[in-house]
């Protein structure tokens, strides 16, 4: 296992961390399995009892709740593995199951207990089994929140500016 700077790995003796890469400033809780060739970006959090097998690649600022299960073989035991990509800023709720060959696009949210069978669009929220889109386009955390606030402030400022020309 290769780990970046300032990582906190709680009770490494209770986890299986194979030949994987973990970026800077990550926190890995106890009883986690991270398989060979898994790459995890910077500032990610992986909570207890999560399973991340080979074939999964995770970006930056990703939150993975407790007891999340990623899968890599759709028809086991076929040994045909599919790649799963988790883009920057994704948040995965407790106990979610992610089927193989899926992309969780930037900033999407996976509800607790969801079974995700298809790729999820950026910024969407999905819930349920099979997971369905419940909300589109909400991003409210980390650096994305700052970006969203800036856009909202810019729009407000522009509307005020337009308003200042209206006859009173
Ligand atoms: C998916 C989630 C982000 C939605 O949050 P939200 O936008 O505030 O949604 P609300 O709580 O307003 O719920 C909206 C609707 O979705 C339903 N819903 C919410 N989360 C759900 C879930 N995980 N699975 C199924 N349905 C869910 C609610 O019952 C509600 O349905 P209704 O409108 O018919 O009453 C959140 O519920 C969730 O699952 N977060 C993950 C929590 C977690 O696991 N944290 C781990 C760290 S401890």
Question: Summary?
Answer:
With 168 residues, the protein is an alpha/beta fold. The chain has 1 helix and 20 strands. Strands 2-5-8-11-14-17-19-20 form an 8-stranded mixed beta sheet, with no helix packed on it. Strands 1-4-7-10-13-16 form a 6-stranded parallel beta sheet, with no helix packed on it.
How would you explain this protein's 3D organization?
The protein has 168 residues and is α/β, with parallel strands linked by helices. The chain has a single domain, classed as Hexapeptide repeat proteins (UDP N-Acetylglucosamine Acyltransferase, domain 1, 3 Solenoid). It has one helix and 20 strands. The chain has one helix spanning 142-163, and strands spanning 2-3, 8-9, 16-17, 21-22, 27-28, 33-34, 39-40, 45-46, 51-52, 56-58, 63-64, 69-70, 84-86, 91-92, 97-98, 103-104, 109-110, 115-116, 125-127, 132-135. The strands form four sheets. An eight-stranded mixed sheet has the order 2-5-8-11-14-17-19-20, with no helix packed on it. Strands 1-4-7-10-13-16 form a six-stranded parallel sheet, with no helix packed on it. A hairpin with a 4-residue loop joins β19 (125-127) and β20. It is elongated. The structure holds coenzyme A. Coenzyme A is lined by residues 65, 93-94, 109, 111-113, 125, 127-128, 134.
| Class computed from helices, strands and strand pairing | alpha/beta
Question: What is the CATH architecture annotation?
Answer: 3 Solenoid
Radius of gyration (Å): 19 Å
CATH topology annotation: UDP N-Acetylglucosamine Acyltransferase, domain 1
Percent helix range? 10-25%
Q: What is the mean pLDDT? A: 91
Strand order of the largest sheet: 2-5-8-11-14-17-19-20
Domain count: the total is 1
- The stretches of 5 or more residues where confidence is low (pLDDT under 50) are none
Backbone shape? elongated
Enumerate how many helices there are, as a single number. Answer: 1
In terms of DSSP E residues, the strand content is 25-35%
Largest sheet features: 8 strands, mixed
Bound ions, cofactors and other small molecules, one mention each: coenzyme A
């Amino acid at each position: 296992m290769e780990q970046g700077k300032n990582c906190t790995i709680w009770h490494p003796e209770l986890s299986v961390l194979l030949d994987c890469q973990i970026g800077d400033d990550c926190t890995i809780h106890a009883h986690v399995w991270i398989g060979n060739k898994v790459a995890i970006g910077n500032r990610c959090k992986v909570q207890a009892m999560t399973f991340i097998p080979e074939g999964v690649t995770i970006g930056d600022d990703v939150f993975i709740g407790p007891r999340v299960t990623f899968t890599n073989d759709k028809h086991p035991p076929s040994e045909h593995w599919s790649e799963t990509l988790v883009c920057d800023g994704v948040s995965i709720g407790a106990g979610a199951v992610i089927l193989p060959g899926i992309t969780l696009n930037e900033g999407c949210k996976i509800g607790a207990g969801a079974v995700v069978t298809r790729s999820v669009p950026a910024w969407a929220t999905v819930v349920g089994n099979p997971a369905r889109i419940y909300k589109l386009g909400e991003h409210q955390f980390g650096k994305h929140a700052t970006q969203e606030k800036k856009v909202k402030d810019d729009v407000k400022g522009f509307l005020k500016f337009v308003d200042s020309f209206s006859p009173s």
